[in-house]
Write a structure and sequence with these properties.
82% of the residues lie in helices and 0% in strands.
Length: 82
């Protein structure tokens, strides 16, 4: 009976690993997109107040994503923050 349970446990671990990899990939992609938006704003000669505010928010979001990515890479699962 114990052998019958082993594939299920292995499958669950594998599925969890795949979900973690997918999540990590998604976070890295989102981090890259934020970086590109910040880079675009930095190419402008002068930022409006709205653009300065957006740049500030983007940098905060990017830093939060970096923290989540690093935590996942270390094997920790931080709570989802919005």
């Amino acid at each position: 009976m114990a052998d019958a349970q082993l594939p299920e446990k292995t499958s669950n671990v594998k599925d969890q690993g795949l979900r973690t990899d997918d999540t990590l990939h998604q976070l890295v992609t989102e981090h890259h997109e934020l970086d590109e938006r910040i880079r675009h704003l930095s190419t402008l000669a002068r930022l409006t107040d709205q653009q300065q505010y957006e740049e500030h928010l983007l940098k905060k979001q990017k830093l939060a994503l970096k923290d989540r990515i690093e935590a996942m890479r270390r094997g920790q699962q931080p709570p989802i923050q919005h």
